[in-house]
Amino acid sequence: MEKNYVGSEVGKLRSVMLHRPNLSLKRLTPSNCQELLFDDVLSVERAGAEHDIFASTLRDQGVEVLLLTDLLAQALDIPEAKDWLLSTQVSDYRLGPGFACDVRGWLADMQHRQLARHLSGGLTYGEIPSFIKNIVVDTHDANDFIMKPLPNHLFTRDTSCWIYNGVSINPMAKPARQRETNNLRAIYRWHPAFASGDFIKYFGDENINYDHATLEGGDVLVIGRGAVLIGLSERTTPQGVEFLATSLFKHRQAERVVVVELPKHRSCMHLDTVMTHIDIDTFSVYPEVVRKESQCWTLTPDGRGGLDRVQETSLLHAIEKALGIDQVRLITTGGDAFEAEREQWNDANNVLTLRPGVVVGYERNVWTNEKYDKAGITVLPIPGDELGRGRGGARCMSCPLERDDI
After folding, report:
1. Considering only CA atoms, which of 230, 253, 205, 189 is closest in space to residue 6?
2. What is the CATH code of the structural domain delimited by 13-67+152-403?
3. Check: CATH 3.60.21.10 for 71-147?
4. Which of 246, 256, 320, 378 has the greatest number of C-beta atoms within 10 Å?
5. Active site residue: 33, 161, 268, 396, which one?
6. Hey, how many other C-beta atoms are within 10 angstroms of the C-beta on 66?
7. pLDDT digit string (tens) for 38-81?
8. Which of 344, 348, 394 is nearest to 157 (CA)?
């Protein structure tokens, strides 16, 4: 099987990209966390320790784990990558030409690992050397950000997603996350593991304003057998879906894209916070959101480079048709109405499937984990008391790079 090929959500997971957060979480404060899309500040040490357990759980199951900071530092060894990233992330228009030039020059001399940390963790005015003088510096305090931290890099699922033999490098909806995409663009363009790879870039690799055509990987489920399921959420728009679906069909990587409309609210930020694929015929769902009356369509190629659209009677029927199975089995969030709502908020449905019927999930979701167990699904539990405060579970925190078909 080719490297960098993701053929499903539940086939054997072979390689994954994670991000162990550090500097960006240290800079999360009660006054800035909302703007940075976090509901709370996290204990940095405990979040890091929990993340290490997540990574070692995956390695123990034979999954190759690549860390974003390592990949970024290695990509920076390529001079062209470093020049591009510095001019993109520290642009003349952001800082003014004089100041930007001085900051880029200073950063360019830094060790690449330290530079990678700043590209995800941010940079303050207090951290730059005193010889860099400028009117921009004069009008800022030491703790103001030159580059804001990117704490949501923790959720590697969103910034890019591999679909069959290619990747979508996603234009993010919220300003707090848009710079993340540039770090991924640099990795996929220049890192030796990807630069010579024979894979397709479906969407999002250009430095342009994508306007309303936004897309995030948490809304994209590669359900397999030539089908992709995408949620229309507060972050993924019909415009973004149209670009991705058109490209998938043009490159003959998918035969159909099933699209489902989600409510636009925080607890259901992405499709994978309310629904994940855990065995060939089995999905975990939060029934308050994944409802019979949800609008749902199937997109197929129209033969002229455009899309045919059929409105479906129900999401389950559309999935059964796409996968060629008689009946989808649903496991709903556990407990009574209160417990289910709490566990959904704590990502009980956001599990990462390692192979059919084996998933990684937060140990705190006891009611739902018990339901999985009774249904014959094995849960490998990880602690998430701190990580879970970022509102993302094991699926959100992982970007599969290589996974088998079903």
Report:
1. 253
2. 3.75.10.10
3. no
4. 256
5. 396
6. 18
7. 877 888 899 999 999 999 999 999 999 999 999 999 999 999 99
8. 394
What's the pTM?
A: 0.94
Catalytic (active site) residue 396: yes
Dist CA 33 CA 48 (whole Å)? 18
Nearest in space to 1 (alpha carbons), one of 198, 231, 186, 277: 198
Summarize pLDDT for 161-193 with one digit per residue, the tens: 999 999 999 999 999 999 999 999 999 999 999
Instruction: Give the closest residue to 60 by CA, choosing from 386, 384, 360.
Output: 360
Sorted by where each begins, the domain ranges of the chain are: 13-67+152-403, 71-147
